[in-house]
């Protein structure tokens, strides 16, 4: 992936800010955002602002589209939904000018943010920030429509839900910006969802690696891809609230002290299902015969576990989004009816995946054991387990999700008053 | 103005259709439009469809903008308002595909419709239809977002209210299309506004020249600039209703038979004002000293009349939009206080300009006389008169507008039952 950035000199005077849908959700909120942008400019920064669509707008547009076509072409959906950010960008530029500033809005194809042609989930291939730099040099606040790009054929593409985060971090990377501020409706990244765990604590800092895990495990605060960009180009990401001036959470390179924290946060996903296929023949191609038709159908399989019986026959279990079960069963019946027979398959819905994440796990043993103990104490049955270097996930019945999250948060000592605030504050120079 | 069209071979199989805001104002209406596009395709045409924003959408967007900024930058307004057509275009493409067709939407910059940089009233400089032709060749209905273009710097521009008409005719010209159908919420071009004159008659045909006059004299059915394009590139324009299958009005090259019709239609504008400056010194530069500051302020002066007294002193009167009177007086006080003194200036508001139009005037004498007689019979005082080869306009008090239109319509014999239907029907081959 060739961000034009790599050859640019470091530009410590550039700040990239991104505002989400609720932060630009009304004319009053847009005025508040304009004030914040101009304050940053007065503080000596060249300011680039990336905006999402006004809250509710994308859903309104897609709702119209689905009224007209139940299986709509993704290219046209991107054409339609990209307008939400275009309107926000223009409106914010006007709001900034109404407060005496100078501003100009730019679209994805004007910046130019080149993506592949995977409509609705396009990936950024390169960012050419010349147009941005030219406007910054004139003293303007540059307002960039988030979420959108353009493919090599000139089609409008979008980056998927949360894609404005990725726009912002990619532009920050391309500009070698000091930092990328992600303004949202929460105060930062928490040790757990504060709606579930009242004494959840805002993290002062978190490593890119942990944030990646959290983003892929259900935390909605940052799009996964934006964290990948941040990590790759070492852009410090500051997740904070547009409704206050409080420091949020810095997502930064791993620091030595982070290793002391075995578990940084607990997170959980919803709406998972599990398909189990038993008594599979002893045959090395069995797994691929089952998983290939699912991949061909574009169904993302998550946790995969296989157990062998003493007789050599295997049982394969995997999780997938509950909404995909019907399609998955259909694909399997079509492609391998011999393996996927009614008598040996079993589907369970209403599952959650509860995970603990922390870079300290690399150097601490027994975290999985502790997790099982905590869940067992609450009589929560674990369907499947999946581990990585820095996370452990347990698939459980959905009805125990909140209980499990609270128990793990308490059991790993993550709450306010349970741990000191060692990891708070912005990154020091040496980190970057 | 270099339309790329000029070197293309004639393409009699291409039809351009344009649908206005009410014609695409709901999902139901979009479905009806899709049906009509596909019917044209089934009838053997390659179909290009130009769409306006859904009715009310442009006003909603500009309303948001004006809430944020009372003197908004036009560039940003164009950025914002252009999204209305983008949404319509994507939605119509989806509606066509839902009915089994193939469609693709294209924006102004994708087509590419190059304009100057006069935001909010940009003029088309060239149209490059390669992108359109490539998609037509694949059997797709090409849906083009109307009203918008792109300037040489890549900024989004808009063509002013009614600009989608101009988009459609310009594309029809560039494609050497058979015809450009303008679908609207009225059945065609009438001899007068049917809301004012109940027995107004739909015209079967009208010449470009007359339509130009009508468009500049208050008829809202076609943007002036679209008629200019049609005339220059001889694109037959068919103005018709999207709510019926009835033939509408063909705007075509002047035909011999049209000369028989002295007056084709009566039209009227509202909200005009008149400024009169008396006792002007005998000085050849006086007129330009008065008119230049107005031009500099971007104020469009319409009818200008000057009368000389026997003593050599002049009285200058001109009309302008009532909304511009304040700015005009300010500009004049600033730049020529000696000429524009309170004691010799006089402003009248609440004026209308009532006009009769017809190519037959060229060869018929006495039309002005007849017009004055008709107005005099109703005791309507004429403030100013302005004539061209094919129209006569009288500025009158606004409160007599409807009365004047009805009297002129009757007096020139334009109503149903007053004249045969000689000029109806589509253009014959020889006309084109």
Description:
Two copies of one chain form a homodimer. Helices cover 32% and strands 25% of the residues of chain A. Chain A is of the alpha/beta class and 432 residues long. Chain A has two domains: 11-185, Carbamate kinase (3-Layer(aba) Sandwich), CATH 3.40.1160.10; 267-411, VC0802-like, CATH 3.30.2130. Chain A has an eight-stranded mixed beta sheet, with helices on both faces. Chain A has a six-stranded antiparallel beta sheet with strand order 14-15-13-16-18-17. Chain A is globular. Mean pLDDT of chain A is 89; it is low at 420-432. Chains A and B meet through helix 1, helix 2, helix 3 and strand 3 of A and helix 1, helix 2, helix 3 and strand 3 of B.
Entry keywords:
32% helix, disordered C terminus, six-stranded antiparallel sheet, VC0802-like, Carbamate kinase, 432 residues, homodimer, 2 domains
Topology:
Two copies of one chain form a homodimer.
Chain A: E1 14-19, H1 27-42, E2 46-51, H2 57-68, H3 74-98, E3 103-106, H4 108-111, E4 113-115, E5 124-127, H5 130-137, E6 141-145, E7 148-150, E8 156-158, H6 163-174, E9 179-184, E10 205-207, H7 208-216, H8 224-233, E11 237-241, E12 249-252, E13 265-280, H9 286-296, E14 304-308, E15 314-321, H10 325-335, E16 345-357, H11 367-377, E17 382-388, E18 391-397, H12 401-411
Parallel strand pairs in A: 1-2, 1-9, 2-6, 3-6, 9-11, 10-12
Antiparallel strand pairs in A: 4-5, 7-8, 11-12, 13-15, 13-16, 14-15, 16-18, 17-18
Helix pairs in contact in A: 1-3, 2-3, 6-8, 7-8, 9-10, 11-12
């Amino acid at each position: 992936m060739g961000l034009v950035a790599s050859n640019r000199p470091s530009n410590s005077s550039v700040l990239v800010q991104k505002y989400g849908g609720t932060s630009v959700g009304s004319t009053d909120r847009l005025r508040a955002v304009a004030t914040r942008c101009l304050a940053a400019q007065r503080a000596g920064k060249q300011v680039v602002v990336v905006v999402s669509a006004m809250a509710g707008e994308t859903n309104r547009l897609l709702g119209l589209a689905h009224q007209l076509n139940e299986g709509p072409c993704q290219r046209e959906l991107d054409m339609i939904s990209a307008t939400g950010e275009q309107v926000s960008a223009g409106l914010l530029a006007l709001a900034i000018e109404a407060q005496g500033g100078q501003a100009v809005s730019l679209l994805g194809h004007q910046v130019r943010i080149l993506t592949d042609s995977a409509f609705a989930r396009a990936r950024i291939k390169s960012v050419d920030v010349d147009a941005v730099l030219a406007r910054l040099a004139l003293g303007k606040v540059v307002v960039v429509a988030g979420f959108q790009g353009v493919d090599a054929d000139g089609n409008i593409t979008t980056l998927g839900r949360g894609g404005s985060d990725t726009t912002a971090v990619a532009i920050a990377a391309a500009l070698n910006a000091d930092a990328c501020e992600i303004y949202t409706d929460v105060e930062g990244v928490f040790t757990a969802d504060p709606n579930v765990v009242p004494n959840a604590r805002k993290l002062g800092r978190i490593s890119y690696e942990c944030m990646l895990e959290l983003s892929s495990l259900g935390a909605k605060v940052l799009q996964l891809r934006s964290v990948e960009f941040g990590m790759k180009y070492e852009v410090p990401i500051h997740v904070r609230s547009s409704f206050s001036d409080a420091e949020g959470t810095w997502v930064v390179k791993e620091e030595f002290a982070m290793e002391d924290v075995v578990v940084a946060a607990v997170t959980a996903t919803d709406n998972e299902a599990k398909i189990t296929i038993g008594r599979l023949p002893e045959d090395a191609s069995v797994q691929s015969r089952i998983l290939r038709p699912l991949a061909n159908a574009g169904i993302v399989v998550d946790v995969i576990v296989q157990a062998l019986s003493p007789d050599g026959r295997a049982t394969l279990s995997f999780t997938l989004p509950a909404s995909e079960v019907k399609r998955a069963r259909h694909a399997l019946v079509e492609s391998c009816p011999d393996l996927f027979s009614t008598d040996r398959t079993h589907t369970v819905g209403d599952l959650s995946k509860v995970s603990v994440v922390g870079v300290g796990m690399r150097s601490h043993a027994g975290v999985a054991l502790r997790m099982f103990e905590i869940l067992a104490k609450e009589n929560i049955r674990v369907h499947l387990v999946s581990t990585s270097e820095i996370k452990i996930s347990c698939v459980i019945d959905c009805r125990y999700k909140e209980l499990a999250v609270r128990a793990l948060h308490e059991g790993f000592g993550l709450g306010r008053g349970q741990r000191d605030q060692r990891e708070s504050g912005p990154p020091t120079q040496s980190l970057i």
